[in-house]
Hints:
The complex is a heterodimer. Chain A is 49% helix and 15% strand. Chain A has helices spanning 9-28, 33-52, 56-63, 71-78, 120-126, 133-148, 166-170, 173-186, 201-205, 226-234, 240-246, 251-256, 275-294, 301-310, 327-334, 340-346; strands at residues 80-84, 97-104, 107-114, 153-159, 191-200, 212-216, 220-222, 262-264, 315-316. In chain A, a hairpin with a 2-residue loop joins strand 2 and strand 3 (107-114). Residues 324-348 of chain A have low confidence and may be disordered. By secondary structure, chain B is α/β, with parallel strands linked by helices. Chain B is 32% helix and 17% strand. Chain B contains nine helices and ten strands. Chain B starts with 29 loop residues before the first strand and ends in a 15-residue tail after the last helix. At the A-B interface, helix 7, helix 8, helix 9, helix 10 and helix 14 of A face strand 4, strand 5, helix 4, helix 5 and helix 6 of B.
Amino acid sequence: MAVELPFEKPLIELRLKIEELKQFTEEKGIDMSVEVATLEAKAKTLAESIYRDLTPWQKVQIARHPERPTTLDYIRGMCDDFVELHGDRSFREDAAIVGGIARFDGYPITVVGTQKGRDTKENIFRNFGMAHPEGYRKALRLMKQAEKFGRPVLTFIDTAGAYPGSGAEERGQGEAIARNLIEMAALRVPIVCIVTGEGGSGGALGLGVGDRLLMLEHAYYSVIAPESAAALLWKDASQGQRAANAMSITAQDLFRFGIVDEVLSEPFGGAHRDPAAMIRTVKTAVSAALASLRALPSVDLPTLRYDKYRSMGVVMGGATDSRLVDTAVGHEETNGAELEPEVQDSRH
Amino acid sequence: MLKDLFPKKKRYATVAPHPGARDKVPEGLIEKCKRCGQILLGKELEKHLKTCPHCGYHFTLTAPERIQITLDEGSFEEFDADLTPGDPLLFPDYPSRVAKAQEATGLREGVVTGRGAICGCPVVVGVMDSRFIMGSMGSVVGEKLARAVEAAVRFGLPVVLFTVSGGARMQEGIFSLMQMAKISTALARLNETGLLYIAVLTNPTTGGVTASFAMQGDIHLAEPGATIGFAGRRIIEPLIRQKLPDEFQTAEFVLEHGMLDQVVHRKDMRALLATILSLHPQGGETVGCRTAL
Lengths: 348, 293
């Protein structure tokens, strides 16, 4: 039996009832087909009303669904000749991030992504898709390798966040993510990023700076996990639902804000209902994104990326803009050498 | 009873303080050291650049205070002082929190950027202010820092950023997160032009700021005892089910783990910055600033 979500309960109960009636018809030979048909129509309407208007919190639950396709499912489903590459060449291998080289649309590409497990055992091995610094450093190593060989990079993002453990802190979780941001900003090959499930804060952004950002219909992407936001704002982690609604974290919100370039439709009820169809949709979208980027000269990519990120944010005011200050004047004026002796005294 | 002859606790006559007595101490006249508990006179504290002369504890500075003790007098020229945050998510209580912070600080946002000189070396500086919603980074902080870095590229000047932040600002949601990427793209461009960027991490520097520009410097300096980390102690401790040692995530701890170049006492910071700037091509000549306290 598939894992069902709390808000799907009425639908599941209705479906169980339909099954019962069908069985009844078969066993007792009493014709209940009219009742079954009525209930089936009702179930269809109910399903539509549930899935058409999912709340942000319901989307978070779908995004976290244990049967949702994982990064390796997408890589294997979309690419040929996938060769997985391991290790950060510095400390260790981190199974929470997978990566390697593969053939996509006949071209070699580099693929990287956070990897969740299917069951408890696998999740422990994958650290629930929460990477240590080594994961981000492995990802960076593979991206720099892609740059060397001139192949595009495709990143899959599905993580609750970077792992907040003591070892991760000791080995520079912040530094590892920070380095990825600045290196990805400057990488001279196309980067396509896709949020397939959870886009958890800095841990997601650490694989998320690129030329195109795609997002699945029910994925979310947030500055902080809804539960953590609730814990900080209202001192109550159980208010995740309230935080999820307040923070505008859905793919539709981010598309409206101009942060996501494209929202990819999921199969009815979520990607886990039809993984094969989902993988096909992602493949088509990635193919189009890479084709448009391949046409661009590689030297222009960092500039285009710069313009893309430079425009993000909402700022009010600003009549005097530092960007309008004249260049030549600036340099002379700031050289405050003649002021120096006075300043010295005041500083012991 | 015999026991009563040796009372454990001495009894004193107690006099309740005059109800308004506490209020009569003018603000800033005395301060208690947060580490060693010594009572410090405001003047004494000021003389030591707001560090405790007894234990070396570094009090948090406001952005204007930092600029005053770091830059040459009269050299600072502010950029974009009038930028102010919007409320893109219509987040509950956000505008009132911003208004309160603006009133308390006299600043429009939690970072002050501009151009000035350190011992004669021209620089672009950015200084965060922890009084402004915990020094959190929203769109305006990102925009001002990105513009400051762009100005540095245009003028061919090095950049010094003083960080103090609780991380990305929740109330601006994904826009706050994207500021990490925005500043990173600006700093990537600075790197390409061969200009120097020094990050000075002060107490506390955490979350999204640590995971972006605080850790993207050519040189990373920090003040003693500053808390520096990605995830907060309150998140880590329940997760690993043990209490972390006191020195965890201090500047000294982070130095030991290879993420910093030096931990520098506040009294030596200005001179060290000047020396580093003068060792770089665009740094200019320092004007006798090498002797510390």
